[in-house]
Amino acid sequence: EVKVELLGRRTKRAVRRPFRRSSAASWKRRGELRVGMPKALNMWSTGPFWRTYLETVGVKMKNVVFSDDTSEEMWIEGGKYGSIDPCYPSKVAQAHIHDLLFHKHSPEKPLDFIFFPCLTHMTTKLVGVMDTTSCPIVAGTPEVMKSAFTKEIDFFADRGVTYVDFAVTFTEPNLLKRQMFEGWAQHLGMTEDESDFAVDQAWKALERFDTIMEDKGREVLEAVERDDAIALLMIGRPYHSDPGLNHSVMDEFQVLGYPVLSMRSIPKDPAWLERFYADGLASGTIAHVLDLNDIWPENYSANSAQKVWSARFAARHPNVAVLDLSSFKCGHDAPTYGLVDSIINASGTPYSALHDIDANKPTGSIKIRVKTYAHSLKLHRERLEDVSRQKAELGFRVEAKRVALLEMKAAQLAQRGAMEPGLAAQIAQARERMAAYEARRPPPEKPKLPEGAIGLDKLSLGKRATASAAAHASAAGGDAARHAAAPQNT
Ligand code: SF4
Questions:
Q1: How far apart are CA 355 and CA 245, in angstroms?
Q2: Could you tell me if 70 and 243 are in contact, meaning their C-beta atoms sit under 8 angstroms apart?
Q3: Disulfide check for 347: which of 120, 180, 300, 315 has CB 3.0–4.6 Å away?
Q4: What is the ipTM of this complex?
Q5: Sequence-distant (≥ 6) Cβ neighbours of residue 185 within 8 angstroms
Q6: At residue 482, does pLDDT exceed 70?
């Protein structure tokens, strides 16, 4: 218990008390409330947190409602409330609030609250960063929305919905608990203990979600490494996962057989990442696999820093290609363009940028871009396969030579009646490695047949017999001709 005394002195005292619960009536009331959230901006990266918090304090799962994915229809219908926003992702937030007010809210199923927090700071797994701020547009948009929907008519009051948009910082867990309690207590009537407990559960849900994403990402990366294939890494903002904001470009690549990774799904386990940073770590240019101060010291913005870090990861992973998405008039992406470009150019990583995305979907030009990039990816994949084949061939030959030399040594020792401990095991291990390399070697090339000739493997047994007889006849004919042409000694 912390007390501030008359002269400002703080005293702390350890107390033991039971968990404070709100009344049964309060729980019952929360069970009947409906809360809507716009699926916009950084709600894309924090969704599990809000849902878990609300469900833990008693809001029913079915009563936690998100707006739909962005679509052209949604934008045309809901993008009509005047507001001053620089970029499309922030402009489109009004269409999501409209969707909640006019589609998710109805007399039969009313929404009691629309929750759109001002996210000032985000979490990060990077180390040594200056700060982890959100883009100021992300942080301020909930307030802009409040103005846009109340400036002439108060649409919230009109529909009986309370708009909740208090500020939240994800970098200070204790402050976050206080913000959540102060922001929600007046509306939901829970105790501070209940709210704090719900925040703890919400953190767990967010961490669990990250683990699931990273596990899937690791699976994909290990599969492409094994198969000499390519995965496409989308470097962008969390809301670029919205099909309405990425114009479904990722779906196009998935249809072509390229798995698409988000930056969040790159495993952040230092032990797993170290093999890609071995040179930098050994020379001391890279302090930590999750540090990017050597290439970008001004890393105060959480999403921008993650974007640059991910570009460097892609540059160091041979099976990762980059798809760089950025929205029209994005002030926060602009400083990273040059940096990402230099990183990618230095490594020769396949790269395609779709900058300046906005509401218009230039389907034709996107299709051309996808086709062109898919062609470069195909060539890159062929190069990877070539390198892998050459490595397998070289490895096989080295191991074959090793086996031959070790066997020779074993034979010579045997002749002298001597033996070396461990020699048989060395031979067995070299043979195993040889077999592993052999499995990855390409099958021997078939000799090319002259034009018009048909390979025996293409013929059925009956035809083979006929062909074989014909071949003999032809050979005999040839011999006869040669014999006829030769000078006769009689
Ligand atoms: S990061 Fe860029 S696109 Fe996103 S809200 Fe900020 S300015 Fe807009």
A1: 12
A2: yes
A3: 315
A4: 0.98
A5: 192, 195
A6: no
